[in-house]
Amino acid sequence: KSLSSVTIDSLRASLEKQEDFIVFSLIERARYPYNSFAYDPSFLGNQNCSFVELFFRETEAMEAKFGRYQNPEELPFFPDYTQPPLAPPHRFQNILHPPAASVNVSRRIWDMYFNDLLPLFTKKADDGNYQQTVASDLICLQALSRRIHSGRFVAEIKFRDSPQNYIPAIQAKDSETLMKLLTFTSVEEAVVKRVFKKAEIFGQNVNLGKNYVKESESKYKVEPSVAAKLYQEWVIPFTKQVEVGYLLRRLI
Ligand SMILES: C=C(O[C@@H]1C=C(C(=O)O)C=C[C@H]1O)C(=O)O
């Protein structure tokens, strides 16, 4: 890919594809109940960290060795525990402005996912599948982080497309004006509607009618309204915060 091949349309197309994976990841996580022991800091006794956090640190360390974070689109939740890659690096194209690329909302994504989102689409119960549960959490969180931190690329392209619009607000450190400049309400509305529809289509329970064994009472594996709320209340606002944070550092 050459520099000029990245456009606002190509980025929006990438965000749209990422929606599929995010919806499927939620559906996969919804197969397990909440499983609170996985999040209880006392569950592992003297490790003084939760089962889920330890699983993330160790998996990210292993994935880092195999090069996952060589790709500038991927960010670990626990960078202090990652390890250098084993293989010689591929030269990824990186269009980001280096001082701005470090904008990071991983902590907020983590807190939102565990405190706000999980209780909305998992049953309050425990089935002992703690490894499978946190492995599904990892998939969800990696997908959400990638999507939200894509805001860096979106901001870079918006800046390149019209630097004259952004430069005065960046120089004035005016976050509010930057937020207005980068917001496209009709795009956001379409995203939320599409995610609702994807959750309806991808997550419908399939029943064959009264002559067959009834497989499920509920209509959807994940309520479409929860997927839409995830985007409306968290994914889109966090993406925009990443965009603002990136732009504020774009002239450093
Ligand atoms: C990502 C963009 O920037 C903003 C954030 C959006 C989102 O997170 O989906 C959508 C529209 C914009 O308000 C974009 O313009 O596509």
Automatic annotation (TrEMBL):
Q: Name one GO cellular component term.
A: cytoplasm
Which processes are annotated in GO (biological process)?
amino acid biosynthetic process; aromatic amino acid family biosynthetic process; chorismate metabolic process
Q: Where in the cell is it found?
A: Cytoplasm
Judging by the UniProt lineage, the source's domain of life is: Eukaryota
Give GO terms: molecular function aspect only.
Answer: chorismate mutase activity
Ordered alphabetically, the record's keywords are: Amino-acid biosynthesis, Aromatic amino acid biosynthesis, Cytoplasm, Isomerase, Signal
User: What is the protein named?
Assistant: Chorismate mutase
What organism is this sequence from?
Answer: Dendrobium catenatum
Classification of source organism: Eukaryota, Viridiplantae, Streptophyta, Embryophyta, Tracheophyta
